[in-house]
Design brief:
Elements: H1 31-39, E1 50-53, H2 57-63, E2 72-75, H3 81-95, E3 100-103, E4 109-110, H4 113-129, E5 133-138, E6 149-152, E7 158-165, H5 170-179, E8 182-192, H6 193-203, H7 205-214, H8 223-233, H9 239-244, E9 250-255, E10 259-260, H10 265-271, E11 286-289, E12 295-297, E13 304-307, E14 312-316, E15 321-325, H11 332-343
Parallel strand pairs: 1-2, 5-9, 11-13, 12-14
Antiparallel strand pairs: 3-8, 4-10, 5-8, 6-7, 6-8, 7-9, 14-15
Helix pairs in contact: 3-6, 3-7, 6-7
């Protein structure tokens, strides 16, 4: 899944160059490239599908030159994760109805990739042997209000899901952490193609009707116009709300492998290398004085002199400079709306 805009990383992430195509962590590779390399040891290149907005198709092929154009499925408009997954699942059903399917966001961080691949391998075996909708859960390390939570039924590596809770308030998140029965929802899913299609048919029948009709036009001149019609008609809904919270055959594999969805500048700060004053800064070009616990992002060959900041975000791009306290990063959406109101989409 590679269709998001990544507004929380503005002004670095833009409508025409979103987060998944950026090297925000300074590793030398984009998020989508890391994701491909993480899975290519489990899945041959010809079996990858990338679902993205049609305006990002060329970017996907630029970052993943191993793929053919027909492996990039283009959404005309974003409709959340259920239509995205349906597009891929109904496409796969025509190619191999017996296939197992891994669904993953394209912009997550995994530090221990060997352990991660081992867990995904276990999930594939389980999915092949059971009529199950399987998700990967992460043992929580803090009462984070930005993640969804999954309550597990027992302490087995793969256990039945009791319930899902979307982004709780701080008090409830603290209770979940203390309880020990809850894990974070990673947004990574494993199932047989036919299992998820049966789930669409039962829990999202309108999506099933729309996307099953698409199968007749796959590979023909009518495919794109059919897809445009389907996305114009289908309801925007997440796979969690639409299927996972309703189904009775949902399981979770809990794991610890250094996962983060790297969803905010704060999470980038958390995972970045820092100097002796706890600043996350570029390797070159940044000169700090009396500045602590801040994160700085600069264009290549740009020099910044910063003095007197504590716990700030400083992001400089060719056309936008943003300076705000780390504690206020939830206001980035408001900043974007303000700029858009006064200047249009030019800087968004």
């Amino acid at each position: 899944m590679a269709g998001g805009v990544g507004t929380r990383f503005w002004p670095k992430s833009r409508q025409l160059m979103p987060k998944q195509f950026l090297d925000i962590l300074g590793t030398g590779k984009s998020f989508i490239r890391h994701t491909y390399e993480r899975f290519v040891e489990l899945v041959p290149p010809e079996n990858f599908l990338v679902v993205t907005n049609r305006k990002y198709k060329d970017l996907v092929l630029e970052h993943l030159p191993e793929l053919k154009p027909e492996q990039v499925l283009c959404e005309p408009i974003g409709r959340n994760t259920a239509p995205c997954i349906a597009y891929a699942a109904y496409t796969l059903q025509t190619k191999n109805p017996e296939a197992e399917m891994i669904v993953t966001p394209s912009d997550h961080l995994i530090l221990n990739e060997a352990d991660f691949r081992s867990i995904i391998g276990e999930c594939l075996v389980f999915a092949a042997e059971h009529d199950a909708l399987l998700t990967v859960g992460i043992k929580p390390t803090r009462p984070d209000t930005g993640y969804g939570y999954i309550q597990v039924s027992d302490s087995q590596p793969i256990s039945k899901v009791k319930c899902f809770t979307e982004k709780p308030n701080l008090e409830l998140a603290q209770t979940f952490l203390q309880c020990g029965e809850f894990v974070w929802n990673s947004g990574i899913f494993i199932w047989k193609v036919n299992t998820i299609i049966k789930a669409f048919e039962r829990y999202l029948p309108e999506h099933h009707t729309l996307f099953s009709s698409m199968q007749q036009t796959l590979g023909t001149e009518s495919e794109q116009s059919t897809v445009e019609k389907i996305f114009a008609e289908c309801r925007a809904i997440s796979i969690d709300y639409g299927v996972m919270e309703k189904a009775d055959n949902v399981y979770v594999r809990c794991g610890e492998f250094g996962w983060s969805d790297v969803g905010t500048w704060g999470s980038v700060y958390q995972h970045s290398r820092k100097d002796r004053y706890a600043n996350a800064i570029p390797a070159e070009g940044c000169y700090l004085y009396d500045t602590r616990s801040s994160i700085v992002s600069l264009p290549k060959d740009k020099i910044a002199i910063i003095s007197g900041l504590k716990e700030y975000i400083v992001v400089d791009t060719e056309d936008v400079l943003m300076i705000c306290p780390r504690a206020d990063e939830q206001n980035i959406k408001k900043f974007i709306d303000e700029v858009k109101f006064h200047k249009g989409d030019k800087h968004i």
